[in-house]
Amino acid sequence: MARRLPRITGLFLSAIFATSPALADNHDTFYRGKTVRIVVGAPPGGGFDVYSRALARHMGRHIGGSPTLIVENMAGGGTLVAGKFN
């Protein structure tokens, strides 16, 4: 029983920490007044561009703080250019 006690204690402590609420900032205040960019690695007018613009049109309302969403097209290199963008 003495060998199992540390294991049981470890499981008990990990269960407590796994269920405790995370201390994070309120997302309503974090995104308020900010701009979120959606980078599309395809040229304008393509399928990915159309889907991204349709998503951006409505998604801002569903994020707390209602940020502005902008779609940017960065075609080139088979989306490699958009992947390297920071």
What does this structure look like?
The protein has 86 residues and is an alpha+beta fold. It has one domain. Helix content is 45%, strand content 14%. A two-stranded parallel ribbon has the order 1-2. The radius of gyration is 22 Å and the shape is elongated.
Strand order of the largest sheet: 1-2
Biggest sheet statistics = 2 strands, parallel
The amount of beta strand, in percent, is 5-15%
Instruction: Note the overall shape.
Output: elongated
Helix and strand composition category: alpha+beta
Low-confidence stretches: none
Tell me the Rg in angstroms.
Answer: 22 Å
Percent helix range: 40-55%
Helix count equals 4
CA(first)-CA(last) distance: 54 Å
Total count of strands? 2
- Average pLDDT score: 81
**SSE arrangement, N to C:** HHEHEH
In total, the number of domains comes to 1
